[in-house]
Amino acid sequence: MMERKIQLKSVNQHITCRLCKGYLIDATTITECLHTFCKSCLVKYLDDNNSCPTCEIVIHQSHPLNFISHDRTMQDIVYKLVPNLQENEKKKQQEFYRSRGIPFPKTLSNNEECDNQATEDQDCHRSDEQVNICLECKSHQMKTLKRKFIRCSINATITHIKKFVALKVLNNTCRYKDVDILCNDEILGKDHTLKFVAVTRWRQKDVPLLLHYRQRIDL
Predict the structure, then answer these.
(1) Can you give 108-141 as a three-state secondary structure string?
(2) What is the pLDDT of residue 32?
(3) What is the pLDDT of residue 45?
């Protein structure tokens, strides 16, 4: 079968972010309408809006960040289509950490190794950068955790934390959707990683990342 070459510009509209006009980085999709944007662009946009930047459908009146999801398939497609994009993005991340005097986490290289050379004796999670968390209750309807300090991978998501709280407080991980996790009184999106929260929402250093949990309130 004869191969057909496709010019990159012919698919640009499908792999670029409508907000920044650049190629998708950390592609994140709105679950209500399936439009995709860079995660940082979308999260910043949703700080002041509750509708999709493309079709203007209302995502959620009060908690739009709970209805966005990381789109790994789309991000893989973008990296494969655009030459050197992934390498250049890694260099930018390294420069970001260097300029702020923060050690660059080895999670990216570790994840690539696990994807390319996965074996049964590898433990990708333990080789991740770790983060200390303090979980405090902010609801009269929920019990206080017996052990509020935990240590876990910085690649863990808010959904993982919600399931942990649901298991320990509600004795049922299936009820994790009844739990809100907050940082600085802001409800965090379910797909936010702890790394993302630490960099964008938590300004203090050398102390545990303080998160609050409460019974979910749908307005």
Answers:
(1) HHHHHHHHHCCCCCCCCCCCCCEEEEEEEECCCC
(2) 87
(3) 94
- Tell me the per-residue pLDDT of 73-113, one tens digit each, with 9 for 90 and over: 899 999 999 999 999 998 988 888 888 887 776 554 445 44
Residues written for the chain: 219
**Amino acid code (one letter) for 34:** L
Query: CATH 3.30.40.10 spans which residues of the chain?
Result: 10-78
The dihedral sign for the CA sequence 44, 47, 52, 53 = negative
Please state which architecture CATH assigns to domain 130-215: Roll (3.10)
- Model confidence at 218: pLDDT above 90: no
Query: What does the angle CA 105 – CA 109 – CA 113 come to, to the nearest 5 degrees?
Result: 140
Distance CA 193, CA 129 (A): 12
Cα 153 vs. chain centroid, distance in angstroms?
Answer: 13
213: helix, coil or strand? Answer: strand
Sheet holding 36-38, edge to edge: 36-38, 27-30, 68-70
- CATH class, range 10-78: alpha beta
- What digits encode the pLDDT tens for the residues 140-173? 888 899 889 998 888 899 999 999 999 999 999 8
Residues of each domain in the chain carrying CATH 3.10.20.90: 130-215
**Token output for 122:** 């590898």
- Average pLDDT of the residues in 182-196: 89
Q: pTM of the full predicted structure?
A: 0.58
Task: Decide: helix, strand or coil at residue 143.
Answer: coil
